[in-house]
Amino acid sequence: AGNVGYNAFSGTLQMLGAGALPFFQAEQAVYLPVDSARTYTATVDSTGLMPGTYTVTTSLLTGDRRAMAISVVTWTLRGPDFAVTQSPTTTTLTAGNTYTFAFGVENRGDLADNAIFRFSLGDVADQQQAQRLEVGQSGFFTFTFNVPDDLASADYLATYVVSGTLGSAVTRGDWRVSVQ
């Protein structure tokens, strides 16, 4: 806030955050001498907010609560965004052996969530794991499976799907695996 007028200003700085419902409200007394500027800060806790568009309206109010200035800031809070950062490079499997595939996942979104990782390999494996990943946090999902002795030698499709519980985008991937 800045005062370029002829008189000092004394009033209230009011902040209101809203999306589908109000989620934040704060007021702070302010005093601005003539030819001065002040910076006022507020911390908005986004815990519990769902992905969506939100606004924060800041009003500079006089002593009798009349608005001298109003500023509105709108932003979009993205949900979690799970990116696969590591995946197996194995393309050939031998019947009768046990294998472990590890996948790295990072949450590059704006909100923490449970990453739900599903891995499948034809009729050989179909497994799912869940792990909570905070914003910027990485985690690993490890799947161990046995390739049956009597599995026909052929190419099989290995797939993975990563999703979340907050309606995040779904990440998919697949590759061909040859069983000998």
Can you lay out the helices and strands and say which pair or pack?
Layout: E1 2-3, E2 9-18, E3 22-32, E4 36-37, E5 52-61, E6 67-77, E7 82-86, E8 92-93, E9 98-107, E10 113-121, E11 125-133, E12 138-146, E13 154-163, E14 171-179
Parallel strand pairs: 8-14
Antiparallel strand pairs: 1-4, 2-3, 2-5, 5-6, 7-9, 9-12, 10-11, 10-13, 13-14
In words, what does this structure look like?
The chain has strands at 2-3, 9-18, 22-32, 36-37, 52-61, 67-77, 82-86, 92-93, 98-107, 113-121, 125-133, 138-146, 154-163, 171-179. A hairpin with a 7-residue loop joins strand 13 and strand 14 (171-179). 15% of the residues are buried. Strands 8-14-13-10-11 form a 5-stranded mixed beta sheet, with no helix packed on it. The chain has no helices and 14 strands.
**Oligomeric organization of the protein chains:** single chain
Low-confidence stretches: none
Instruction: Note the run of SSEs as H and E.
Output: EEEEEEEEEEEEEE
The shape, in one word, is rod-shaped
**Average pLDDT reading:** 92
Strand order of the largest sheet: 8-14-13-10-11
Report how far the terminal alpha carbons are from each other. Answer: 72 Å
Secondary-structure-derived class = mainly beta
